[in-house]
Structure formats: C-alpha cells, structure tokens
Design brief:
This protein has no helices and 12 strands. By secondary structure, it is mainly beta. The strands form 2 sheets. Strands 2, 4, 5, 6, 10, 11 and 12 form a 7-stranded mixed sheet that branches. Strands 1, 3, 7, 8 and 9 form a 5-stranded antiparallel sheet that branches.
Length: 123
C-alpha cells in the first residue's frame, strides 16, 4: 500500500518562506499525480499545486501562483512545496496527496494522503 510521509511546516512571519516535503513509499501508476492541498477552519481541503510524474506538467491555484512552487526529486519519489512571500491567509494544515493519471483540483479524486502539517503565518 502506498504511504505518503510529510515533513516541514512551522511558524513563520509574513513575507517569509517555508518548504514542505512529501515522500512516497513507491512510484507507480497509482501515484502518477501528486498534489498539495490545504485546510482551514474545518472546511474542505483546497487545492494548492500539483505535478504529474509522467509529463512534468504543473497546475497551481491562482491565489499562490508566482509564490508557491512544486519542485520534485524523482530519485527519492519526493515532491516539495516551496512557499515564498507567505501571507497570514496562507495559514492552514497542508496535506500532500496522490492519485493515478493527471493532476485534478478535486480532493475526493485522490487515493492517498499524507498526515498533514501545520503552517502558521503571523507576526
């Protein structure tokens, strides 16, 4: 069974940067697409950014485009969320997820999930 293990997170000041990591136990057709979601206030998880291993194409939500990036390390089946110029509204629990096929924005379409990590942006 696929496992996703996250690391990173913490508290930062507005304008600061933070890097999250998500390592997959294996890379198969079941984990071709990997993505980051975030959740605040008990609401549904919101898509942030994702990448497909097979074509290296990315999809990023407009609210973080130009600030957040999703580099990958194929050798260790790991994706990262590089967050820059952080804002208080970026505060959330961040989750990584994986699914077959392409990156999509619907959280219900992902089969595997990391444990989540809290990012707090405040003065």
């Amino acid at each position: 069974q696929v496992q996703l293990v996250q690391s990173g997170g913490g508290a930062v000041q507005p304008g600061g940067s933070l890097r999250l990591s998500c390592g997959a136990s294996e890379r198969t057709a079941r984990t071709n697409a990997m993505a980051w979601f975030r959740q605040t206030g008990g609401k549904e998880r919101e898509f942030v950014s994702g990448i497909a291993w097979d074509d290296d194409k990315t999809l990023t939500t407009d609210s973080v485009k130009g600030r957040f990036f999703t580099p990958v390390n194929y050798a260790i089946n790991t994706i990262y969320l590089e967050m820059n110029r952080l804002k208080p509204e970026d505060t959330a629990v961040y989750y990584c997820a994986a699914r077959p096929g392409k990156v999509v924005v619907q959280d219900g379409e992902y089969e595997y999930w990391g444990q989540g990590t809290l990012v707090t942006v405040s003065s």
